Amino acid sequence: MTEETPGFEEKPDVPSGATPEDAEPKTASSSASAAGAAPAGDANQTAGLVAQLDQVRTALGERTADLQRLQAEYQNYRRRVERDRIAVKEIAVANLLTELLPVLDDIGRAREHGEFVGGFKSVGESLETVAAKMGLQQFGKEGEPFDPTIHEALMHSYAPDVTETTCVAILQPGYRIGERTIRPARVAVAEPQPGAQAVKADEAEAAGDDKESGGPDEG
């Protein structure tokens, strides 16, 4: 058994012909190379992470844009469905009420002739109330100007007391639902008599001349 000599330290092997100092620079050189390689590797790893982060951000922006587009399309779809639903309902109501117009005409004629009494009156008023709740509105009055968009002229005459084409009789009332006319008012119209406007214009001109001249001479 070999006894260790106290105080003896093993020295690294040194090639023959070399001094112990030759080993020191080599060790320092290796340490410097390792220290220089470490920062370069960290920089490459950081650059790779930044590139991956940019890719993730780009993908996230694309998915967000897709989601927003889908949401907008869905909202537009819902609005179209709601408009179609309302339009279908309005058409169905208009068709139903159009079929009831002859009955409402009979009720109106019975009221005009004093026959709107008893049970018939109760039923007729209930029907009119239901029609009004469904949006049916009656229009057309005597004396209002003739409007071809809401009036249908069935009779024509001349009258000296009108200054424009006027509804002088309502033969059948018109009906509308909201802004939609489902039947125009059927009316008799009267126009000013031919030449009446010229006569009135002459009279107005003569009256104006009298005022300017101070009126007719007296005495």
3D architecture notes:
The chain has 219 residues and is α+β, with helices and mostly antiparallel strands. It has helices spanning 23-112, 118-133, 196-213, and strands spanning 136-139, 151-159, 166-172, 174-177, 180-183, 185-192. The strands form two sheets. Strands 1-4-5 form a three-stranded antiparallel sheet. Strands 2-6-3 form a three-stranded mixed sheet, with no helix packed on it. The model has no long low-confidence stretch (mean pLDDT 81).
Helical content stands at 55-70%
Computed structural class:
alpha+beta
Poorly predicted runs are: none
What is the N-to-C order of secondary-structure elements (H for helix, E for strand)? HHEEEEEEH
Q: How much of the polypeptide forms β-strand, as a percent range?
A: 15-25%
* Main sheet characteristics: 3 strands, antiparallel
Count of DSSP H/I helices: 3
Radius of gyration: 52 Å
What is the distance, rounded to the nearest whole angstrom, between the alpha carbons of the first and last residues?
A: 175 Å
Mean pLDDT value? 81
What is the count of β-strands?
Answer: 6
- Side by side, the strands of the main sheet go 1-4-5
**Overall geometric form:** elongated
